[in-house]
Recover the amino acids of this structure.
């Protein structure tokens, strides 16, 4: 069976999420040129790998040994690649290292739920982590860039794809059906009375906080945002273009530690407080009150969607209507393109349920989801089943190219190892 390979090898990670600070160094596992790999380094990556794969290495000595050997080999390869990259003068800008660290730290905070919990699980402050991990992150980025640079020079021609297919066709897995889908979204909007009631409620909540009430307690008791309610309305640190425009504009422009006037977005009415600014990132908490949606509101949205369906007489007409009418800001400018979707694997479950009922070149009836009503256009279908060059050239070409690049890089690393002294304890 041909495996799906990725070309960024296991990079050394200086911690395992959730563990205490590393204990004292217990010896050298290997020497690569002027670099050393500590036994504690190997143990950390082995532990992380076992955790990710759901393996209990404490009960299987042979499995533990195999993991240790594989991890050590990968760490040696990383050091070799890094040294070769330095010889070719590969450099990474400091701002790129900072950006990568920001993403790493944001990931910790998101998984932990708060900065405080993240620091407890790391066993150190986030500022200490950033300082200690800075050079490791730089080396990691250098290695990634160099590796990508090497493999991108490898290409494949038509005869190479055909030869690969002939050699591996019996091992290739069946391909799933794929459908190219476009959509137009009509959101269900609350009526005037519901909006007035929601606005009145959010103003009462704001007044309660201004008079001394706890923002976090009010959020936990009354906010309609399930994602942030139990964390006192906290959204953590956000960057630009992560939130809807009206919310983001107020969050970035208001003074720190002040409660905003109600802000209206497609989700309802918000009051928000910006508690911290760090460069282009801000820390925000909010309370949301969503207007009640009535049957009349549902009916209005459904009838609007039906009218737009009646006018979708061709693909070009549908794309034009999407640009003018769709309320999905992420896709409306590209004609509602959702890309190639595998039935049963759509990011919107309700769309997955109806994909098998769609006809190529026709607009669907309105499909209800938590976002509103969708009109779907099935533009093209790629058949699944046993791979053939006639039906699945693009997919086979991608697998063949990845296989060729993997083999090239494997040989390149083996040759590069000969340039350095490697000692293994």
């Amino acid at each position: 069976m041909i495996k799906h390979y990725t070309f960024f090898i296991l990079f050394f990670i200086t911690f395992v999420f959730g563990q205490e600070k590393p204990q004292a160094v217990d010896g050298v596992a290997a020497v690569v040129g002027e670099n050393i790999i500590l036994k504690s380094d190997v143990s950390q990556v082995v532990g992380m790998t076992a955790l990710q794969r759901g393996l209990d290495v404490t009960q299987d000595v042979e499995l533990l040994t195999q993991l240790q050997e594989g991890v050590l080999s990968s760490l040696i390869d990383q050091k070799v690649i890094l040294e070769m990259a330095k010889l070719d003068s590969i450099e990474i800008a400091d701002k790129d290292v900072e950006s990568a660290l920001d993403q790493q730290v944001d990931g910790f905070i998101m998984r932990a739920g708060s900065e405080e919990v993240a620091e407890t699980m790391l066993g150190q402050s986030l500022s200490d982590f950033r300082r200690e991990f800075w050079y490791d992150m730089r080396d990691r980025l250098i290695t990634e860039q160099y590796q990508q640079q090497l493999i991108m020079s490898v290409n494949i021609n038509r005869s190479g794809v055909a030869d690969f297919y002939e050699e591996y066709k019996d091992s290739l897995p069946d391909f799933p059906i794929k459908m190219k889908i476009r959509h137009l979204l009509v959101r269900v909007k609350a009526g005037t009375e519901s909006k007035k009631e929601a606005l009145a409620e959010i103003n009462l909540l704001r007044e309660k906080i201004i008079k001394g009430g706890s923002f976090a307690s009010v959020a936990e008791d009354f906010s309609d945002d399930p994602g942030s309610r139990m964390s006192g309305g906290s959204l953590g640190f956000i960057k630009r273009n992560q939130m809807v425009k009206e919310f983001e504009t107020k969050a970035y422009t208001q003074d720190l530690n002040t409660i905003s006037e109600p802000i209206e977005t497609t989700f309802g009415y918000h009051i928000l407080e910006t508690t911290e600014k760090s460069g282009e990132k801000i820390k925000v908490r909010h309370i949301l009150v969503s207007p009640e949606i009535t049957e009349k509101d549902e009916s209005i949205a459904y009838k609007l969607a039906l009218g737009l369906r009646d006018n979708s007489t061709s693909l070009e007409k549908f794309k034009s209507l999407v640009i003018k009418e769709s309320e999905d800001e992420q896709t409306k400018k590209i004609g509602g393109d959702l890309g190639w979707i595998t039935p049963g694997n759509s990011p919107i479950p309700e769309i997955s349920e109806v994909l098998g009922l769609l006809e190529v070149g026709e607009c669907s009836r309105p499909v209800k989801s938590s976002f509103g009503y969708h009109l779907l256009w099935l533009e093209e279908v790629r058949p699944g089943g046993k791979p053939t060059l006639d039906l699945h050239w693009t997919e086979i070409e991608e697998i063949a190219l990845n296989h060729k690049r993997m083999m090239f890089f494997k040989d390149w690393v083996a040759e590069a190892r000969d340039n350095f002294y490697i000692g293994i304890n």
